[in-house]
Design brief:
Helices cover about 20% and strands about 35% of the residues. It has three helices and four strands, in the order E-H-E-E-H-H-E. Strands 2-3-1-4 form a four-stranded antiparallel beta sheet. The protein is globular and about 40 Å long.
Length: about 100
């Protein structure tokens, strides 16, 4: 599995609107090779929130097909404005090596 993480530091007063961007349906959800997306929130700081978006694909090839796909390009063209309140952003890619799941005894 290939995992992409994007970690955003967002000012508190813009966190809700930033998260709302991920609540609508996306062409990503129907793309062959896509597995799942997770949006995580850490709100322990007074002035900023940390929002991490994780997207999982079957493999690296599927991720790069998505990045170059007309659906992905059009999705970004349709975004009218850059999200407000982003203080910092980091992006990383990983290959899943080990995944442990709950096992009932």
């Amino acid at each position: 599995m290939f995992v992409i993480t994007k970690t955003f530091k967002v000012s508190k007063n813009h966190s809700a609107s930033f998260i709302d961007r991920f609540k609508s349906n996306s062409p990503l959800f129907h793309f062959d090779g896509f597995i799942k997306r997770e949006v995580l929130l850490q709100s322990k700081h007074n002035d900023e929130d940390v929002i991490q978006v994780r997207v999982m694909f079957k493999d690296k090839k599927d991720y790069y097909r998505w990045e170059g796909s007309p659906e992905h390009i059009q999705m970004h063209k349709n975004q009218k404005e850059k999200p407000q309140g982003i203080l910092h952003m980091e992006s990383h890619t990983f290959e899943l090596i080990i995944e442990d799941l709950y096992e009932e005894i």
